[in-house]
């Protein structure tokens, strides 16, 4: 059946196994059509302006650093970081926030991407509208939703009041603030996920759908067996980007709640940011190292697994 | 309407802060001894008021000094601005003159290594000694003020007070009694809190410092040495007051989401009776509710004892500094500009560019006649010597999380005792970062 | 029939939903941009009692010696240069990374992910730029954007190169194409929809950036558009009307760019079908 074989053809060609499963090494080593030096120009930018400064900054995590003076203090910053008040809650918040936002972005982005690739009226308009929030600066988004979600005269609660529902203090209730910010994050970021999924849809050759139709496959069947598998590259990208983004995000939280009320919507990144802003540069660098290790512990295995899955297909 | 406050000239800065009256004013910087053109960059934060003031000052200075041009540059406010200043100083890339805070924040710039010492300039004597100490280290004096001093006080609506026949309270119990009276009367919020802007939550503690000093004159010094804590009286009172006010239900209904602008406008329109705030709120008031200039008054945040009732005073926060990287002709020109900032002419330009928020700290400078009532109300405290400096000008220690902790206490999330304990923990980081003894 | 129902029915429903979810916030921005300062300070969702939009636009445009106009020019220069470089370099890496199996690949992949995870270290980066003589230059800012943005480009390109059948490479090689012409003449054009996607995403990122511009290219004459929004936020007196006018002015041009480019993605749809 064409639907089953179609997705496979791209990887059936010999030697196609990027960075993953063990296969015999390629035969032609000298005149590869894929020259290694293609890595070079990008590598120069990366190493000089990212890698070297990053390694230098790791050193500062072992120091008390005012930007003007540096004093080596060993692992004291790490000890202090783990003594930070409310640290456990920040960890929990970080994971809740990251999985909630990235999950929603993947699902909504996929549905919107597929939907906005189908033949509907106003498609161009809808695509622009969905993408619009991505273009608005975080400060703008923050202030916008502070007003919309105002517990007293905000339009959201006023609308709810029409239906006789008393709206909560979206950003002022300690139990709700984090979730409200997550919703806004999804609103602001789903356009990006949608765009990547639309690009993924474009990459799927139309014949597959036509062939499936001739075989009498239902819409659901096509979606399940053609669209979804062939959107794998897009999914990998969206999952990785939104999860990394979610684990590291603090700017929106910062503008909307400042980690509050109190500390109730603090995440790891906002704790680190507060240290940075208070001028504790060594401590915040140590916090960043911890944050990096946490994110890496989730992302690296996930990336490896997702890519292997993609290669296996 | 409340009777108009008689607008007395707010004389030379903080007389209560013991300003030396020696040395009559030097001439305004009008020398024309320039050899070749010098161009100075002047970095200020991007608040509308400050940019305007800095521009006006630069223009006036350039008019009097041929051959020197000053280009005003801007940076963001808040923590990003702080970090821009620190980064540019640390990487040797600071503008020729820059504006930054005085007090604890200035101490974090390693001034001895990065700033030009101005203690030998002839105009230093004209500065209020309190200001001098807020921009000095053991090794030097580094800054010249822009703008005025201000107070952490309770802004109140005079119409509400007149209507209910209330008197200005001098003890905390009287204050709460007034607030209860307002509550009993109906619609008006007794005490306005605005946690939509978290920084506004700190006034209960920071503005209470006059009362702390009254109870324990050595508190600030002992605190810097690690020998005083907020969990103990007298400093604990600030936390306790906030919790009591919350427990008594004295806040405006929307305290959790209201913003600073809301707060000022509530007390201006009579929707709120009291708003503990810094008197720089005069600027906001004159922008959004100029009609209420005479309606919003100010009184000192009361403590346990009417005898020691007095104002907690902030030195001008906007201060100009010269970085070490400014050398030669530029340094000469920059110093000339500093001398210009010390003249009454420069003060008048500042008063005109924006609503004054309190007395000047420069000898010879005076406020215009028509200052907002909240600023005029400060004068008696200064005249009677009932003022004390805020903690941030007496100790370099200020924990970064105070505002969040205060919001939690003021929202009933955390108890006053826990909040104070959290804050004591929070300041340890700051003390260690500064390398202080005893931490 | 069902197609028609879908086209009109689902389309209309979507438009209604979009109006509620996306246009209402947009309306708020426009309304606030049209208010006077004291009215805007109340931050309420309602029509301005009197429209000041054009006045506000004029104020925002002329503020600080036409700072916004300067900022626009700067942002466009930085965005175009940085995005052009990172798209080409990122595509090269993503392509070889996907196509060629090498024992270095896991390391390169790890670097790519690290680039996404680790926040840039501001002060050491300034030292590096100073060492290279690129600090406070447009070229320096562009280089920084390239270095920080490459990871995203590589990740996306690596994923999407997989959708191009290898047979095409082999056919081209048999036709005598060298590695460079294989990449630029055969592969690069086929990546069109991804390239457009990367351009859109990265252009938005670079255009909306304010941190890097703030630290690596200080000075008003070098301001970028996002920095201008900070002029209207203040602890003491906020001008929300001007802030949102500013937000509006700096959001519309990228939106127009997006509308233009997203047509390019759709155009890619048909070409993809032919080649596949």
Topology:
The complex is a heterotrimer of chains A (313), B (439) and C (276).
Chain A: H1 2-5, H2 9-12, H3 40-60, E1 63-65, E2 70-72, H4 76-82, H5 87-115, H6 123-135, H7 138-148, H8 155-162, H9 177-202, H10 206-214, H11 219-230, H12 232-248, H13 251-256, H14 268-277, H15 281-312
Antiparallel strand pairs in A: 1-2
Helix pairs in contact in A: 4-15, 5-9, 5-12, 6-9, 9-12, 12-15, 14-15
Chain B: E1 38-45, H1 48-64, E2 68-75, H2 78-90, E3 97-100, H3 104-107, H4 111-114, H5 129-134, E4 136-137, E5 140-141, E6 144-145, E7 150-157, H6 158-164, H7 172-185, E8 189-191, H8 203-206, H9 209-215, H10 219-224, H11 236-247, H12 260-269, E9 272-278, H13 281-288, E10 296-300, E11 311-314, E12 319-321, H14 328-341, H15 344-353, H16 373-376, H17 379-383, E13 387-389, H18 402-410, H19 416-433
Parallel strand pairs in B: 1-2, 1-3, 8-9, 11-13
Antiparallel strand pairs in B: 3-12, 4-5, 6-12, 7-9, 7-10, 7-11
Chain C: H1 2-33, H2 37-41, H3 53-99, H4 105-117, H5 122-132, H6 138-161, H7 166-174, H8 179-190, H9 192-208, H10 211-216, H11 225-229, H12 240-275
Helix pairs in contact in C: 1-12, 3-6, 3-9, 3-12, 4-6, 6-9, 7-8, 9-12
Signal peptide (chain B): 1-24
Pfam families (chain B): SBP_bac_1
Keywords (chain B): Cell membrane, Lipoprotein, Membrane, Palmitate, Signal
Give a structural overview.
The complex is a heterotrimer of chains A (313), B (439) and C (276). Chain A is mainly α. In chain A, 67% of the residues lie in helices and 2% in strands. A two-stranded antiparallel sheet of chain A has the order 1-2. The longest helix of chain A is centred in the last third of the chain and has 32 residues, at 281-312. The two termini of chain A are 16 Å apart. Mean pLDDT of chain A is 82; it is low at 1-29. In chain B, helix 1 (48-64) runs antiparallel to helix 15 (344-353). The longest helix of chain B is centred in the last third of the chain and has 18 residues, at 416-433. The radius of gyration of chain B is 22 Å and the shape is globular. In chain B, 58% of the residues are buried. Chain C has helices spanning 2-33, 37-41, 53-99, 105-117, 122-132, 138-161, 166-174, 179-190, 192-208, 211-216, 225-229, 240-275. Classes of the chains: A mainly alpha (313), B alpha/beta (439), C mainly alpha (276). Chains in contact: A-B, A-C, B-C. At the A-C interface, helix 2, helix 3, helix 6, helix 7 and helix 9 of A face helix 1, helix 3, helix 4, helix 5 and helix 6 of C.
């Amino acid at each position: 059946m064409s639907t089953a074989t179609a997705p496979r053809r791209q990887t059936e060609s010999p030697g196609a196994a990027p960075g993953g499963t063990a296969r015999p090494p390629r035969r032609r080593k000298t005149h590869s059509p894929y020259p290694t030096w293609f890595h070079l120009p990008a590598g120069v930018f990366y190493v000089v302006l990212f890698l070297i400064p990053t390694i230098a900054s790791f050193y500062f995590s072992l120091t008390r650093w005012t930007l003007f003076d540096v004093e080596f203090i060993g692992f004291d910053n790490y000890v202090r970081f783990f003594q930070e008040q409310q640290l456990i809650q920040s960890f929990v918040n970080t994971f809740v926030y990251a999985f909630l936002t990235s999950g929603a972005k993947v699902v909504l982005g996929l549905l919107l991407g597929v939907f906005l690739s189908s033949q509907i009226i106003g498609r161009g308009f809808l695509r622009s509208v969905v993408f619009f929030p991505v273009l608005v600066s975080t400060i703008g988004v923050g202030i916008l939703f502070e007003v919309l979600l105002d517990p007293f005269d905000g339009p959201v609660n006023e609308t709810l009041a029409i239906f006789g529902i008393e709206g909560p203090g979206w950003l002022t209730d300690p139990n709700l603030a984090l979730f409200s910010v997550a919703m806004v994050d999804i609103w602001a970021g789903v356009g990006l996920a949608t765009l990547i999924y639309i690009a993924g849809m474009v990459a799927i050759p139309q014949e597959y759908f036509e062939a499936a139709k001739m075989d009498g496959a239902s819409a659901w069947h096509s979606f399940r067996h053609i669209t979804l598998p062939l959107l794998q590259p897009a999914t990998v990208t969206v999952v990785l980007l939104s999860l990394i983004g979610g684990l590291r995000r603090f700017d929106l939280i910062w503008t909307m709640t400042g980690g509050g009320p109190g500390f109730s919507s603090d995440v790891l990144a906002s704790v680190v940011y507060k240290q940075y802003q208070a001028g504790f540069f060594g401590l915040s660098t140590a916090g960043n190292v911890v944050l990096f290790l946490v994110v890496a512990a989730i992302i690296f295995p996930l990336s490896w697994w997702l890519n292997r899955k993609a290669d296996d297909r | 309407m409340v009777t108009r406050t008689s607008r007395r000239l707010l004389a030379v800065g903080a007389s209560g802060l013991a300003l030396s009256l020696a040395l009559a004013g030097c001439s305004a910087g009008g020398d024309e001894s320039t050899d070749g053109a010098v161009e100075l960059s002047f970095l200020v934060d991007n608040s509308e008021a400050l940019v305007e003031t800095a521009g006006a000052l630069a223009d006036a200075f350039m008019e009097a000094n041929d051959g020197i041009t000053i280009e005003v540059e801007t940076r963001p406010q808040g923590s990003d601005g702080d970090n821009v200043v620190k980064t540019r100083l640390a990487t040797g890339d600071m503008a020729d003159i820059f504006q930054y805070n005085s007090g604890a924040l200035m101490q974090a710039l390693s001034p001895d290594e990065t700033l030009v010492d101005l203690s030998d300039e002839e105009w230093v004597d004209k500065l209020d000694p309190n200001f001098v100490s807020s921009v000095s280290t053991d090794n030097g004096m580094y800054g010249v003020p822009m703008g005025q001093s201000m107070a952490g006080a309770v802004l109140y609506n005079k119409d509400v007070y007149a209507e209910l026949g209330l008197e200005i309270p001098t003890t905390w119990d009287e204050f709460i009694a007034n607030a209860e009276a307002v509550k009993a009367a109906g619609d008006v919020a007794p005490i306005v809190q605005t946690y939509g802007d978290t920084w506004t939550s700190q006034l209960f503690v920071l503005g209470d410092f006059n009362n702390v000093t009254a109870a324990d004159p050595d508190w600030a010094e002992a605190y810097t040495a690690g020998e005083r804590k907020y969990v103990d009286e007298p400093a604990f009172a600030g936390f306790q007051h906030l919790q009591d006010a919350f427990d008594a239900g004295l806040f405006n209904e929307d305290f959790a989401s209201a913003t600073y602008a809301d707060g000022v406008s509530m007390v201006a329109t009579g929707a709120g009776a009291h708003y503990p705030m810094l008197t720089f709120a005069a600027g906001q008031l004159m922008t959004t509710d100029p009609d209420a200039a005479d309606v919003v008054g100010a009184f000192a945040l009361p403590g346990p004892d009417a005898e020691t009732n007095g104002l907690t005073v902030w030195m001008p926060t906007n201060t100009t500094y010269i970085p070490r990287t400014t050398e030669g002709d530029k340094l000469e020109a920059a110093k000339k500009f500093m001398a210009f900032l010390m003249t009454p002419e420069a003060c008048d330009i500042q008063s005109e560019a924006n609503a004054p928020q309190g007395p000047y700290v420069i000898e010879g400078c005076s406020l215009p006649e028509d200052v907002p009532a909240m600023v005029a109300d400060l004068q008696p405290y200064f005249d009677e010597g009932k003022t004390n400096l805020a903690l941030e000008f007496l100790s370099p220690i200020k924990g970064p999380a105070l505002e969040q902790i205060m919001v939690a206490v003021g929202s009933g999330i955390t108890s006053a005792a826990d909040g104070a304990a959290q804050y004591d923990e929070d300041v340890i980081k700051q003390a260690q970062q500064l390398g202080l003894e005893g931490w | 029939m069902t197609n028609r129902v879908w086209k009109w029915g689902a389309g209309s429903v979507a438009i209604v939903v979009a109006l509620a979810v996306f246009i209402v916030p947009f309306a708020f921005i426009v309304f606030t941009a049209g208010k006077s300062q004291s009215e805007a300070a109340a931050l309420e969702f309602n029509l301005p009692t009197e429209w000041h939009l054009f006045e506000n636009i004029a104020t925002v445009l002329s503020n600080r010696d036409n700072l916004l106009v300067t900022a626009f020019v700067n942002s466009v220069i930085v965005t175009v240069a940085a995005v052009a470089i990172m798209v080409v370099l990122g595509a090269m890496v993503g392509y070889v990374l996907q196509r060629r199996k090498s024992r270095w690949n896991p390391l390169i992949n790890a670097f790519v992910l690290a680039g996404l995870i680790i926040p840039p270290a501001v002060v050491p980066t300034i030292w590096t730029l100073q060492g290279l003589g690129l600090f406070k230059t447009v070229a320096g800012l562009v280089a920084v954007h390239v270095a920080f943005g490459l990871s995203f480009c590589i990740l996306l390109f690596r994923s999407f190169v997989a959708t191009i059948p290898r047979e095409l490479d082999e056919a081209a090689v048999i036709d005598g194409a060298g590695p460079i012409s294989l990449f630029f003449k055969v592969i690069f054009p086929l990546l069109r929809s991804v390239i457009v996607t990367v351009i859109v995403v990265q252009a938005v990122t670079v255009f909306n950036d304010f941190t890097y511009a703030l630290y690596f290219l200080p000075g008003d004459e070098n301001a970028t558009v996002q920095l201008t929004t900070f002029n209207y936020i203040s602890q003491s007196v906020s001008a929300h009307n001007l802030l949102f006018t500013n937000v509006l002015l700096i959001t519309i041009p990228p939106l127009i760019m997006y509308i233009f480019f997203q047509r390019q993605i759709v155009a890619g749809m048909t070409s993809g079908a032919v080649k596949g």
